[in-house]
Amino acid sequence: MNLAEFASSSTFRAATVAAVALSLFVLVLFGFIYWKTDRLLVTRSDHVIALQLQTVAALPNERRLDALHLQLSQDSRDVHFIGLFRADGSRVAGNLERPPATLRLDATVQTVEIIRQRPAGPEQITVQAIGQQLPDGEILVIGRYVDEAIQLLMVVSQALALGLIPALLLCLALGALLSLRAERRISGVNERIQRIVAGSLHERLPVNRGRDPFTQLAGMVNSMLDEIETLIHAIAGVGNDIAHDLRTPLTRARLALERGRNNARTLPELRSVVDKAIASMDQSLAIAAALLRLAEIENSRRSTGFGKVALEELLHEVRDLYAPIAEDKGITLRTDIVHAPIVEGDRDLLMEAVANLVDNAVKFTPRGGQVQITTVSGDGESILRITDTGAGISEHERSAVLRRFYRSDAFRKTPGLGLGLTLVATIAKLHGFRLTIFSGEGCVIEIGFPDASEIKV
Amino acid sequence: MTEFRQNGDVFRYATAGAHLIVSSDQTVPEILQMTKILLIEDDSETAEELVAELTQRGFEVEHAASGIEGLDKARFIKPDLMIVDRMLPGMDGLTIVEALRHDQIRTPVLILSALGAVDDRVRGLRMGGDDYLTKPFAIVELVARIEALLRRPIETRETMLRVGPLELDLIERTARRGEREIELLPREFRLLEYMMQRNEQLLTRAMLLEEVWNYKFVPDTNLVDVHMGRLRHKVDTPGDPPMIHNVRGAGFILRAPS
């Protein structure tokens, strides 16, 4: 990792941002302390010079000069300014040449500019000053240069330098350390992911001991990878099934066409061959359509097209639809529908599911048999039960029939695509209904509608 | 013109303009007027076959290979019907339909698609009286649906349907053929009503399932044939000239006896 990459890593950037934010905060804090302290010092000094002015003004004329001289002689830091002037502004005593031009003589403390005489020459400084015209016409001015403010600024700056710079450096160092660690782990993970993307699905992300978020994430990704690996193997299996079931009719079509091309002598002969080929192709197309439809239902969201479905009406419709077919086959189709619920669902899909079950039942029941559509109340659910007197589905085949293309060997000769029950299972799953296959006299299939899905009327 | 044989009769089946004419004699039906169909399909081979087939059936067919071209042609040539492939390069065919509808152009549309029809937009399309056909399809299915779209039953206040000797009273819910009263189950009544509204028109099994039984899927079993068999048994009793005809590999036609 080069320096530019490192500086742009998210951990390092976050650390930098934190450091800058911290510095700003500290600066504001110190600024506030400085400002408050400065105010306090100035206020106190103002109070002192106002008091001095009062005291000196109250002294008799002859003692004033002594008091002023005493004051100035005690000022080792050269911060006191005192001036006693005649009414015309000429100096009587003190270290000021003349009264500051902007100073109002109203005995209030003001900020004014004065000239201070230093050995190096005169300099202009800003001081707090107070002035008053005395009863005898003389003007008294007392000023003070609050030099503590400068010392304070120095103290604050030093404190800042001592505290803030090491803190900043510490922040950056910590950020660098953290981003280095994260970077090292991520590059390990990246390496594995690249191998997984390249096709080695058995690879897993490295998992450290401990329970940090990184390890948890890796654990989660690993279990997702387990799931994907299983699914991909399953898809490969389904793919083989699809290939087989699509190829079978296509093989028949190809054979018919090839033989017809070589052997047909008359137009009717050729037509019958073509009809055969079209029928075979229609079968593989029907398989493709059914598979698409399965995918469509599996991908459709639960709520689109959902509404209230009156099961009783739907069941009667299915009965009416299949009654003639059952009759033609010599099968009794009976219904015993009481208290059928109104459920939340997609009417077309539910119709398709029930029709498929009845279709299967009629298809797999021999002549003279019976197919029954019943509704009963179960434990916390309403149950739709479709029973027939066919061969039934043996225990070991029960989960298999819900898979795509599974057709019981016993019924290889019965027309059908082997996708009917898969479709029913998919529709039930989409709605959150229970689908169970039992053995009775023949086959018993139940759809359980949980009471929560019923709409109370 | 297509020929098919049934019980020794030769049927000539031709589409001319907005009319499907089935005649059992040797005369070729007169072509009444040319119906313009606009086909918007990007696959050139499919388009070529469809244009050839529809032209042979007496339609005037215009082809557009892209959505934009199709939209222009739809506005310019004002077709009587449009066949629109759903998956066009860079565009959903339904968008074209929506654009036309937005401009108050009410040309009936038949959408072709390799996608299934569980989509809400497709439901809307069907509610609007247009149709949707999933690829691949049999040509006879396509033609039957074109006919159905071109000859939408006229919304009448007529409460009595009549085809030859057959009468259907929509208020009393009774049916009779000549003097003979026909007892019908509710679903049989609806089936006969649907067929009488579209007499002389080929109705495929899928169309009947969709329209009469409200089915969006085609079950394995020959449901329609069994129900149609029962209806035919009631309508065409022995001795009567048959009115319900089974067109092999295609569907059914209700026709007044000649």
Automatic annotation (TrEMBL), chain A:
Domain annotation Histidine kinase: ranges: 241-453
UniProt keyword NAD present: no
Cited SUPFAM superfamilies: ATPase domain of HSP90 chaperone/DNA topoisomerase II/histidine kinase, Homodimeric domain of signal transducing histidine kinase
Residue stretches spanning the membrane: 12-35, 159-180
Main location (coarse class): membrane
The keyword Phosphoprotein is assigned to this record: yes
EC number in record: 2.7.13.3
Annotated ranges, domain HAMP: 180-233
A Gene Ontology cellular-component term: plasma membrane
Domain of life of the organism encoding this protein: Bacteria
A Pfam family the protein falls into: HATPase_c
Catalytic reactions on record: ATP + protein L-histidine = ADP + protein N-phospho-L-histidine
Keywords attached to this entry: Kinase, Membrane, Phosphoprotein, Transferase, Transmembrane, Transmembrane helix, Two-component regulatory system
PROSITE patterns named in the record: HAMP, HIS_KIN
One example GO MF annotation: phosphorelay sensor kinase activity
Compartment(s) where it occurs, according to its Swiss-Prot or TrEMBL record: Membrane
PANTHER family: HISTIDINE KINASE (PTHR45436:SF8), SENSOR HISTIDINE KINASE YKOH (PTHR45436)
Protein name (record): histidine kinase
Taxonomic source organism: Tardiphaga robiniae
